[in-house]
Amino acid sequence: MRRPVITARAAATFEPVGRSVATARAFVRDTLQGWGCADIVDDAVVLTSELVTNAVVHAGTAADVLCLRNDGGVRISVADRYPEREIPLQNAGQVVVHPDREGGRGLLLCGALAARWGVEYTAAQKHVWFQLDLPERPAGTRSAGPALPVDALPVTDTRVRVAVIQIDRSGCISFWNEDAQDLFAYDPEQVIGKPLTDFAAWPHTPGTGTGIAEALQLSRWEGSYGIRGADGRVVPVYASHLRVRDADGEASTVCLLVRDHERAILQSPQRTPAPDAASQASQSEGRPSDPFEVFIGSPAPDDLDGLLQRTVERARDMLDGDAAYLLLATDDETELEVRASTGLPSARQRFARVPVEAGSGRYGSARMPAVHEDLTAVPGAVPLLSGTGMRSVVTVPLKVEGRLTGSLGVAAEGAGRYTNEEALRLQFAADRIALAVERARLTELEKLRRGSLSFLVEASDLLAGTLDRDQTLALMAQMTVPTLATWCAVYTVADQTSEPELSYVLHEDEDRIDGLKTLLMKVDPPEPVPTPGARVWTAPSDAAHDAALRTSMRSLGLGNSARPSTGPGATLATASAVGGETVVLPLVARNRVIGMLTLGKPTEEHFRQEILELAEDLSRRAALALDNARLYSERTAISQSLQRSLLPPEQPEIPGVEVEVIYRAAGEGNEVGGDFYDIFPIRDGVYGFAIGDVCGTGPEAAAVTGLARHALRLLAREGFGGPAVLERLNAAILDEGARSRFLTLLYGELWPQNDGSAVLKVVCAGHPLPLRLRQDGTVEPAAEPQPLLGVMDDLELYEQTVTLDPGDVLLCVTDGVTERREGTRMLGDDGLTDVLTTCTGLTAGAVATRVLRAVERFAAEPASDDMAILAMRVPEFQAG
After folding, report:
1. Where would a tag sit more exposed on the chain, N or C end, judged by fewer CB atoms within 10 A?
2. Nearest of 88, 23, 84, 34 to residue 59 by alpha carbon
3. Whole-angstrom Cα distance, residue 465 to residue 467?
4. What contacts 313, CB < 8 A, 6 or more positions away?
């Protein structure tokens, strides 16, 4: 057996942390898209996610991911480094694992999604690999048609315009001819340099078919899509793309576009292959060829959209009709969904849904062939054709094993065109293609579900990565636009008595966001109904149409008011942007509606059922993420409010003394920890100051902090001296019982003097000693150590008197400063002394800042302990 030839290779290693799973997914996605393997990206991402999760989360080791591209597809290998791997015993008590279980799904998914897969063991590693084969793409064909009489030629406008657009390798427009300007009303300078995706309305569903980026990379592509004109309306076009390169080897894509009803100018009919000997013998023997091939032609399209489009075109031609359409049943077979049409505004009708059984007039006969000789006699008999000018129609069901899978219809502008004979001919053709259509539909549905699984994996990971409410709202919108919808609005509900509030608006065209937001602000918000599933909301499109009508009348001078400042263009563009189907999905978390996710389409477009189901899954995940962010924000706000109440009020001005305090609490979201400080007036001319450290950090330590600070103020103002204040505080801490924590505290009283000096009476109870910096640069302790508080009942403390001369500095810190570590090194008392010796002549603020900077630079890691710095300085040259 020939070994596959490796044509590209990419490898990466991911550390055993939770974030590595998302990084690995992004690595595989970017690699495969760079290789042009977009058809298998979703399956590869899902399988890689499961296997890397097994390695970094469950096995707890690094994961090595290796991607190999060969001539048959892509092989991806994920290896972990678990040191005790053993070869599993064959048939040793195998247990069937439920696919919804948290772990162990990787191999089950490999068996379901991969073409081949396997497990390989080495002495130190276990490799799980899987192979995904690339689909074969049919080569293009050429053809020549016979001479036809003039009345049989396709009908076009008198002046046929062929837009020529050139797209560079980055997907941006580099050339825009005059016909393109006439067709779409954009001047070249408005479009050149911008991506084609900004203007193309691509009929593509995520996870199925070919996207615009992939189509531009193909050597040749031909088909239908839409271009949004300057007025916001979508112009249906038929396009032929050709990939070329210039003399320098630079690749680009040349796109030729005509109006969709003029597609015959560019469309290449499929060439019917010459019959081989077997087929000629079959025909000579009178055996008919395959009816499916007779109707569809050869080769048959390999994608559902292509097959359906070919079907409606052949059905229209077979019955010489003016239009044809095909509807497919939804999963629950209660509705029919428009999937293809010709001769009708396809962009307007695509994915429109109608009930299967809704009375005798509205598709009540969908399960049987039906002929309507004149629709004007039975208004609304075929809702899809309302307002199209079609008068007669024949419809037949598509059935597989007795189940209704769809409906095929052909219509004409004249009355009485069809009889039961035409219905029988169309039914015969429908019977030939029903099985192929159902098979293609199921294949598309499987691709969509795989793409949905990949989408939800990515969405869940992103939503779980933040607890910020505003960021969660932005993520919700950005994940839906443009993947699921053209625009999105998120409403939030604060409580059951509050009205919904418009919190976030996003449109795939940034220029439309402001107009869309203004429109939605004028519309009453949708009702916060907890019923699951999407429900249609018509208020935005109705309001947009009314506003556009009023603007048009004012611009023509028919209205009563002056010309609007925004001009008619903006209003018409907004109306076009929201003129399609709009649905609302409730955001329900913990049995309460906390908001609504609103998704919309542009003019008269509809959502397909599978997209709505995917949006419902996303809304459930988004609701829980939004509620978690709300709870986190509320609890953080409460915590910070309580913590701020423990901080000292505004620092008093002390005559003749500079005071500076720097405080840092350890832990995210903490404003107060175990370290604390306070400076307060006791009586005229006397000020108290304190700096302390409660054992531990966080809210528990902050509770003792509040007790200590309030007790110090109360006792000092009652006239107690330093030792008596600390002895009574010690008793209060011990009274807390099991909740008590020991406390180191430096407490002092400050007495500014008329001669410019300051007298301090201090007590240092187990706290790092205060340091005194003299003018000559010498540093010395300004107190002696005494027992800490909260340990012993009987304390005998004493106070010491220190005089600060003009120019002297007293520095007080907590152990978060002196115990700053980098590996085995510690700043310590000596390191702090060295820093303070360099602060001669600096203000109190500069001293505190220099100490903080030295602490931060001592180690690269963030500080893990609370930290407080109190600097007091007596300025020089004070008046006597």
Report:
1. N
2. 84
3. 7
4. 324, 342
Amino acid identity for residue 396 in this structure: V
CA distances from 636 to 472, 630, 674, 840 (A): 16, 10, 18, 42
Helix H or strand E encompassing 52: helix 41-53
What angle do helix axes 19-34 and 41-53 make, rounded to 10 degrees?
150
Using the predicted structure, report yes or no on whether residue 772 has a pLDDT greater than 60: yes
- pLDDT score, position 811: 95
H or E, element range at 340: strand 335-342
Average pLDDT, the chain: 80
Tens digit of pLDDT for each residue in 20-77?
Answer: 888 888 888 888 877 878 778 888 888 888 888 888 777 778 889 999 988 778 999 9
For residue 819, pLDDT beyond 70: yes
Whole-angstrom distance, CA of residue 762 vs CA of residue 764: 7
Give, in degrees to the nearest 5, the angle at Cα 215 between 23 and 300. 120
Rounded CA-CA distance 253/191 in Å is 16
Structure tokens at 395: 């419809």
Both tokens of 110, joined, read 């490999």
Instruction: Report the percentage of the chain scoring pLDDT > 90.
Output: 24
Backbone angles phi, psi at 762, to 5 degrees: -125, 150
Collapsing DSSP to helix, strand or coil, 303 comes out as coil
**pLDDT at position 175:** 95
- The answer to whether 487 and 600 are in contact (CB under 8 A) is yes
**Residue given tokens 């602000």 in the structure block:** 521
Average pLDDT of the residues in 169-185:
93
The residue behind tokens 């839906």 is 480
Cis peptide before 195 (omega within 30 of 0): no
Q: List the end-to-end C-alpha distance of the chain, in Å, as a whole number.
A: 104
| Structure token pair of residue 9 | 């290779």
Q: Which two tokens stand for residue 582?
A: 């709009």
What sign does the dihedral 38-40-44-46 (CA atoms) show?
A: positive
Give the mean model confidence (pLDDT) for residues 760-785.
93
* DSSP summary character for residue 334: S
The whole-angstrom separation of Cα 177 and Cα 416 is 45
Q: Report the SS3 class of residue 528.
A: coil
Largest CA distance in the chain: 130
Across the beta sheet with 323-329, the strand order is: 353-355, 335-342, 323-329, 403-412, 392-400, 370-372
236 beta partners:
226
CB of 25 closer than 8 Å to CB of 457: yes
- The enclosing H or E element of 848 equals helix 844-858
Q: What pLDDT band is residue 563 in, cutting at 50, 70 and 90? A: very low
Q: Which two tokens stand for residue 637?
A: 């706000």
- CB distance 261 to 323 below 8 Å: no
Give CA torsion, residues 696, 700, 702, 708, to 10 deg. -90
| Average pLDDT, integer, range 780-794 | 90
What order do you get walking across the sheet with 126-133 strand by strand? 6-14, 63-70, 73-80, 126-133, 116-121
65: left (phi over 0), alpha (psi -120 to 50) or beta: beta
Cβ–Cβ under 8 Å, residues 724 and 714: no
Question: Whose CA is closest to 816, among 854, 868, 767, 856?
Answer: 868
Distances (CA, A) of 196 to 156, 172, 186, 192, 227: 26, 6, 13, 9, 9
Instruction: For helices 609-646 and 420-464, give the axis angle rounded to 10 degrees.
Output: 20
Six-digit token string for 69: 């591209």
Q: How far apart are CA 165 and CA 84, in angstroms?
A: 60
Q: What's the DSSP call for residue 172?
A: B
pLDDT at residue number 698: 58
Other CB atoms within 10 A of residue 665 CB:
26
Which residue type, as a one-letter code, is found at position 831?
A: G
Q: Rounded to whole angstroms, how far apart are CA atoms 363 and 375?
A: 13
Among 524-528, 715-719, 859-863, the least confident range: 859-863
State how far the Cα of 563 lies from the Cα of 201, in Å rounded to an integer: 32
